[in-house]
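Notes, p. 3: input format for complexes.
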Amino acid sequence: MEPKLLLVEDEPGMLEEMQTYLHREGFRVLTARTGNEALMLARSERPDLIVLDWMLPEKSGIDVCREIRQTSNCGIIMVTARSDETDKIVGLEIGADDYLTKPFSLRELSSRIRALLRRLRGPEDKPVLLERDNLTISETKCQVFKDGQEIQLTPTEFKILLTLAARPGMVFSRLQLLKAALADEYMGYERTMDSHIRNLRRKLGDDSANPRYIQTVYGFGYRFGEQS
Ligand code: CA
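Output follows (228 residues plus calcium ion):
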C-alpha cells in the first residue's frame, strides 16, 4: 500500500500544487486547510506522514503538532515561511521530525518525505535495534538480552528502554518518556518514570551511581549512553 500523506496548508494554490505533484509521485494524499480539520483527519485517517504549515488560521501548526504527538508517532514535517533557527528548534522540540523553509521545490518536498518515511520504517527492517556492550535489544521480538541472558521487562520498561536506545546521546524528559511508553493512557505522572528507570537499571545490571546504559541528565531527564 502506498504511504498516506496529510498535507496541511491554508493557501489553496500551494495546497493544490503539492497535492497534484505528490499524488503523481505515487502517494495517497489527503488535504486540510485548518488545524482542526488536520486534527480530525489525523485521528480518523491515521496518515503515515503529515506536512504541516506553521502559519495556519485558528490553530497554529505548532499547536496541531503538539496535539497530534499525544496520540501518534506518524512523521511530521513542519513548513514555515521564516528561516529562523529558533522556529526550527521549537518545531523539533514539540515533536516534528523534519523542517522545511518556504519557498521550497516540490521535488525537495518529495525527497524529504521519502527520506523521513524510510527513517520511520527503519526498525521494522532491522530486527535488532541495538547490539553493544553485551546488550541486545530486539524491537520486533520485544526482547532484551544481557550477556546472552534474556532480561524480563514489563511492556512499559521495554518501551522506555527502546525509546532511549533508539537515539543514543539524545536527552529525553520524563514527560517524553512517559508519553512514549504509555501513549494514549498517558496520565501525566512524570515521576513514575523514576521508578521505571530504577527497575530498568537494576534489571540491566546498571550501576545507578555510574550508569553505563541509562544515564540521568539532571534537570532534564534521561539518555541512553553513547558508546565509550
Ligand atoms: Ca500558511
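The longest helix spans residues 106-125.
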